Amino acid sequence: MIEVSIFQIYVVFIIILYIIRRPRIGKDEPPLVPYTIPILGHTFNYIFNTKKFIKECKEQYGECFSIYVFGHTMTILSRSSLTDVFRNPDDFDLTSATNEILPLHQLLIYNGGTCRESVKFHAKTTREQVSGKLDTNIGVVQKYLLKGMEKWIGDCNEPKIVYSAWNMVNGIIALPIANIFVGEEAASHEDLVKSLENLAFDLGPLFMIPPILSFIHQKLHEFVITLPMKFGWNPVSRHRETVMNRVRPVIETRLKEKNMLGENYKPYNDLLEYYMNQPDFDYTKPKNLPYHVDNLFVMTFVSVNTTSRAAADALYDLAGRPELLNELYEEALTIDRECNGSLTVADVKKMVKLDSFVKESLRHNDNILNLVHYMISKSFTFSNGFTIPGGRKIILYTDDMLKSKEYFGVDAEEFEPFRFLNKTSPATKVDRSYIVFGGGRHACPGRFFAIYETKMFLHKLILKYKVSTKSGKIEDKLLIGPFSLPSQSGIVFENRN
Ligand SMILES: *[C@@H]1O[C@H](CO)[C@@H](O)[C@H](O)[C@H]1NC(C)=O
Ligand SMILES: *[C@@H]1O[C@H](CO)[C@@H](O)[C@H](O)[C@H]1NC(C)=O
Ligand SMILES: *[C@@H]1O[C@H](CO)[C@@H](O)[C@H](O)[C@H]1NC(C)=O
């Protein structure tokens, strides 16, 4: 009688896995960092010891090298090979790699996926309607930033302590965005604002599932996390319903106005109007309004959570540095007096110290690696001579570039808030080394808006409150694998007057 124990099956399984999943490296490829534990490879170090591990690999194996994580080979790129990725955007695909972790194409089911065509459309929308309309929308942004601060921070005659300030900042940042996306009428409804505010937050749990299944096949993780959606569970549906209910009456009113006024109709400046003007807009057709609302959700998804992240990091960076706060207060007060409390784009440009500080804060975002891509051509040769085969997953060693002595000087590791002052190097300017918004022709087109909103938020906040960390120290970010999150420690708010 043959008795097969679970253990024996396990051993056979592991051996088979080991054989089929052994990485094969071609001869002109970047070196594969050696490892001792089969199958697992570098996974453990990659998750629990990222910063040190990647740094040591680069010191030992050079600016580009491959590691073996979650059952596949991934190539880490820094310096010139990183720049090559931005210079050759047609060879590298960010969308398909991102979809594996966050299946937006399965969540926004009416949007027809996140194919290159729709990415182009959203980039154009952002350029023309969001970043391109700062002048027109600055009054709305200002008004709702103040409202948001009143609602979320309010009166701090007695010092108020806020933990996990990202959530609070997210609420404040989302309010102006909701207003310039759907217009003031629809955004006067709290449930709609909540939906736009929480959209990214509600998808958070999906990110938290570690891609264990990738050990078996690269696409298995994506397949499994999207299973619930195939059975009708979708965290976005509820938000879609809410937003549709609120924008439908507004669309109807606007169409009536258009009919009545004809030539004299005064178009609104929001995204809703922009979508209404698309040739394929016909909200009476069954899937048409959900489609446009899903477009709006893509815009929400890429703007709210990222901008609030930048603003929350800056808030913690500021709260830990009392001298900096004083210096920025001086600047803010001067500008506030000049414009009598009502900012224009020119006034925001005048906030040069604040701009340098925001840029330095972004440079210190402390993500170790970022922007995973698939190489989608047959093969790609980097300027340093190494070649990678098609289908290879790559990730950028952004922290190395952002802290490089070569570009930022010997004190590159330090936090120097006024590092960029007098350097004609505004926070929105993408260059070879300042890659927080990506680079090349695909650099994030929303950065102009994101920086403006962040600066305006900090400006108004500094005028109104004194902020400090509860601990009295500079707080570090949380590190989860290669990615960082804002600190969750307490921030103390006190009224200035
Ligand atoms: C931002 O999005 C991430 C990913 O979905 C989520 O984990 C995080 O909680 C969100 N933050 C806020 C403040 O919404
Ligand atoms: C400045 O603003 C205040 C109130 O917002 C207003 O009463 C005052 O007239 C304004 N002053 C100037 C010079 O515009
Ligand atoms: C920037 O320039 C101003 C005047 O042009 C000067 O007073 C200031 O010290 C400079 N700051 C830095 C950090 O170089």
Automatic annotation (TrEMBL):
GO cellular component, one term: membrane
Chain residues that bind heme: 444
Keyword Glycoprotein among UniProt keywords: no
PROSITE patterns given in the database record: CYTOCHROME_P450
UniProt subcellular location: Membrane
Keywords, alphabetical: Heme, Iron, Membrane, Metal-binding, Monooxygenase, Oxidoreductase, Transmembrane, Transmembrane helix
GO molecular function: heme binding; iron ion binding; monooxygenase activity; oxidoreductase activity, acting on paired donors, with incorporation or reduction of molecular oxygen
Principal location listed in the UniProt entry: membrane
Cofactor(s) the record lists: heme
ATP-binding as UniProt keyword: no
A Pfam family reported for this protein in Swiss-Prot or TrEMBL: p450
Family: Belongs to the cytochrome P450 family.
Protein name: Cytochrome P450
